[in-house]
């Protein structure tokens, strides 16, 4: 009886001390930020900016790992399979909200399995084609897609752009041939090379290629014209008043991570994002706006986004695309 009583008292106390020590010494080694996207996107650029400065603040290296593939599942599983100790951080994207709604085999739930640290920024997407394409305007490509359903090809990478492309076709009463890729660099290369006709992509990543004369922007998903692309119409002003697509990027750890560890990471990230240098950095991306949400604010936003995507996906037949 006494032995059982001592066990009931001592073991929890030892565990509590161990967890407290873990939080007190965090971080004692390098961290990693796992990205579901490849190099070249605005999310990759911002993650590398934050990794360098977070490492300086914590006194430990923060390494960026690009793990695109399987609609973000590769990156998500890499973090969920790691210990819940704060040393593995996931770059959050809308694909992680949409993925489990589109694919029950995903076997994860962003709200259940992940603890948001922050939402960093949100950005608009742009519909692009090759600079030498026969499509000079949005009207041109929509006319072709209506005349030949399923022939005009649209590249996408990740669930967000896939859903966005399908909704574009649905609202315009036409059908594209949707082609899935792993990341922006592969998509942009094939659009420029004429392998695919168009793509709905990260506006910040596409902007340099548009300015360099390699891509032509046909429309943006923003609510107002982008300052860096003033001649490019929005989809809303082009006859699709209900179209709404933006991409946000955040950071998260496993949901079981200690409060003290999560809060330390959150505090350091919020400090970095509050600097004029960071805001100027994001402004240079072209189509992005800083969010700098706290962890609880980010969790609330993800809950709202989950319902938004649930409604959007419920209105389309994914099996037909």
TrEMBL record:
Transmembrane segments: none annotated. Keywords: Signal. Pfam families: TctC. Belongs to the UPF0065 (bug) family. It comes from the Bacteria. CDD domains: PBP2_Bug_TTT. Residues 1-23 form the signal peptide. SUPFAM superfamilies: Periplasmic binding protein-like II. This is Tripartite tricarboxylate transporter substrate binding protein. It comes from Cupriavidus necator (Alcaligenes eutrophus).
């Amino acid at each position: 009886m006494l032995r059982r009583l001592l066990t009931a008292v001592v073991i929890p106390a030892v565990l509590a001390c161990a967890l407290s020590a873990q939080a007190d010494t965090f971080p004692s080694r390098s961290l990693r930020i796992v990205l579901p996207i490849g190099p070249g996107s605005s999310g990759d650029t911002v993650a590398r900016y934050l990794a360098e400065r977070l490492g300086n603040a914590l006194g430990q290296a923060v390494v960026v790992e690009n793990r695109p593939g399987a609609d973000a599942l590769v990156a998500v599983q890499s973090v969920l399979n790691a210990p819940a100790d704060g040393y593995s951080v996931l770059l959050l994207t809308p694909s992680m909200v949409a993925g489990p709604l589109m694919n029950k085999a995903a076997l994860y739930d962003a709200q259940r399995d992940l603890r948001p640290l922050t939402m960093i920024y949100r950005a608009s997407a742009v519909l692009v084609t090759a600079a030498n394409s026969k499509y000079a305007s949005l009207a041109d490509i929509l006319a072709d897609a209506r005349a030949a359903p399923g022939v005009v090809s649209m590249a996408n990478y990740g669930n967000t752009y896939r859903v966005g492309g399908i909704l574009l076709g649905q609202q315009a009463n036409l059908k594209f041939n949707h082609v899935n890729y792993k990341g922006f660099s592969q998509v942009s290369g094939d659009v420029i090379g004429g392998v695919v006709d168009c793509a709905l992509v990260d506006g910040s990543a596409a902007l340099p290629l548009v300015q360099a004369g390699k891509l032509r922007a046909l429309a943006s998903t923003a609510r107002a014209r982008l300052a860096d692309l003033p001649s490019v119409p929005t989809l809303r002003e082009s006859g699709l008043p209900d179209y709404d697509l933006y991409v946000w990027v955040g950071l998260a750890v496993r949901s079981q991570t200690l409060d003290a560890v999560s809060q330390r990471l959150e505090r350091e990230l919020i400090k970095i994002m509050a600097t004029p240098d960071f805001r100027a950095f994001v402004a240079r991306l072209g189509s992005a706006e800083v969010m700098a949400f706290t962890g609880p604010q980010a969790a609330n936003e993800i809950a709202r986004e989950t319902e938004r995507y649930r409604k959007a996906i419920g209105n389309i037949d994914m099996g037909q695309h």
